Amino acid sequence: xxxxxxxxxxxxxxxxxxxxxxxxxxxxxxxxxxxxxxxxxxxxxxxxxxxxxxxxxxxxxxxxxxxxxxxxxxxxxxxxxxxxxxxxxxxxxxxxxxxxxxxxxxxxxxxxxxxxxxxxxxxxxxxxxxxxxxxxxxxxxxxxxxxxxxxxxxxxxxxxxxxxxxxxxxxxxxxxxxxxxxxxxxxxxxxxxxxxxxxxxxxxxxxxxxxxxxxxxxxxxxxxxxxxxxxxxxxxxxxxxxxxxxxxxxxxxxxxxxxxxxxxxxxxxxxxxxxxxxxxxxxxxxxxxxxxxxxxxxxxxxxxxxxxxxxxxxxxxxxxxxxxxxxxxxxxxxxxxxxxxxxxxxxxxxxxxxxxxxxxxxxxxxxxxxxx
Length: 372
Description:
Residues 166-226 form the G domain. It comes from Shouchella rhizosphaerae. InterPro entries: GTP-bd, GTP-bd_ribosome_bgen_YqeH, Mito_lipid_metab_GTPase, NOA1/YqeH-like_C, P-loop_NTPase. This is Ribosome biogenesis GTPase YqeH. Residues 277-370 form the NOA1/YqeH-like C-terminal domain. This protein is of the alpha+beta class and 372 residues long. It has 3 domains: 2-49, no CATH class; 59-226, P-loop containing nucleotide triphosphate hydrolases (Rossmann fold), CATH 3.40.50.300; 240-368, no CATH class. It contains 9 helices and 16 strands. The chain has a 6-stranded mixed beta sheet, with helices on both faces. The protein has a 5-stranded antiparallel beta sheet with strand order 7-10-14-13-16, with no helix packed on it. A 5-stranded antiparallel beta sheet has the order 11-8-9-15-12. Strand 1 (74-81), helix 4 (93-97) and strand 2 form a beta-alpha-beta unit. It is globular, with a radius of gyration of 22 Å. The protein starts with a helix and ends with a strand.
């Protein structure tokens, strides 16, 4: 009986199934092994009750699994979150993929404003990837929610793989498993055969093989965890508040020198110097944005962080964290100030000096505007 148990893997997250200890990873009751499709207790509760259980797989294990791709002959499909491009980028990806061809796929395009020019966005993604050291052969846009671009991506994969296995890689929550589920649905697979997905980081825990017609496989890999995203600082309630579910509606603020915007209680943006101008905020529509004067900002955050300025939510035990300052000067081109996993602010005032504040754990950067 022991030998047969070792062969079972959860169809939802890929982890090895065990029936001995309910508190350990991969547990499923003996009765579950009689089903055509087996899922572990963690995936079952996530699918049916939206509950997440902590796991014991460390970042090093994820890195080791990803690094093994260097030795394989495969097509690498790298999926990024177009709404959080830098936050969802895997550092050092060019080393891991080796000489394998790369298809870069930007998911969640449905969340960008409808006015976003798709051709310009594709060019922006290709240049940004190149600047980060990765040179994809193709760049495609898709939405696993609306289905936009799914067929095109599937056809491109079929054309580019040329008899190779296909490995779908990316950091947590970019939509890798959702994409593969779309492919499965196109071939008539539904219900428990689907891979577990959620807005929680790290849902897929091991590589999941899906056979292709020529004896090769389409493989869903675990998402690498980028610790510089806000997702790792928030509770379920806070995470839902900052995660866009619908098309982002940009908010325009007319600011003068010495004015501040708070993005909830998670980030602060100061307009230090420059002519009065427009600043455009791109973030989840539910996120509360508060404007004040720079001279009052420290006191406001100290007194009202976690209460007026939310998330975080003090009543849920979320921590109000000290904010670290980052200073930037804008040149001639429109630029975005990016808060990893939260959103960005577009600046088009030449010579403007701004300061962006965020918890020390969170990545803050300036980039050529995605809306050029």
